[in-house]
What does this fold into?
Amino acid sequence: NTWQFKEDFYYSRGRNSLKFGGQFERIQFNQDSDFNAGGSYSFTSAADFLLNKPSVFDVVRPGSDNIRGWRSSLFGLYVQDDIAVRPGLTVNAGLRYEVVSMPVEVNGKMGNVRNITPAYLATLTLDKTDVGAPYMLNPSLKNFEPRLGFAWSPFKGGKTALRGGVGVYYEEVQPGMYEVPGNRAAPFYSVAELLSSKLGTTPIDFPVAYISQRAALLDPNSGGSPQIDGIEFNTKQPTVYKWSFDVNQQVSKDSTFELGYSGTRGVHLLRGNLQLNATPSQMINGRRFILITQ
It folds into this structure.
């Protein structure tokens, strides 16, 4: 749910046409993620499949909770002035400020990892996650977005028009950025795994391993390390720069020729959730090797 309030004002005097206003949004994002809830069994061969002998069983770790209730607020102000510099030339100048609060989970179920140095992540376990607010540092506190544009008709006939503009735009931290990592982080949620190679003579009990081998699912020595997802704690503000220029020429009563160019440059864009305790790797002689043991 999103509650919105927005108000715009217009004022014109002489050469200036002023627009200004603001908005407020209260964001309520409730989610129930069933990622890996049903579990999955993997078999190394068709023969093992026919004999009900799985080699791997992945499932939500017993005791996990994937129900979240996120809350955040967004506040924005803007002002823009369209200035008629002279007949045939108008300049637009504007500035927007927009800030969003970092998400808060209503029951305090926020887990993340603030130290993402490779050395720390290589030893990360379920009991080392950072719990509570802030879920991440706020990158939006200085989000001033200037825009500048112009429209110019250089000749008296008015058949030629040149237009251009440039602006800075920010992608605010919204639920789409944390809907996955927000409910897949320990200690509130993780995925457990059973490996037949680590169970010795005890096979994975297909198809009821979740019930009959619950203790093994809670034992980190029975499988791989539980998956921990998260989002970069000290995130830089995702930013997009846009610019454009076009020429419009009327060549007859019902024909117009137009040539334009537009560009976009994005920096610090978020790539989604991070698997914070992925198995580390190392480049050796130009090849990447996964470090199974350390």
Residues 46-50 form the longest helix (5 residues). Residues 61 and 190 are 6 Å apart (CA to CA).
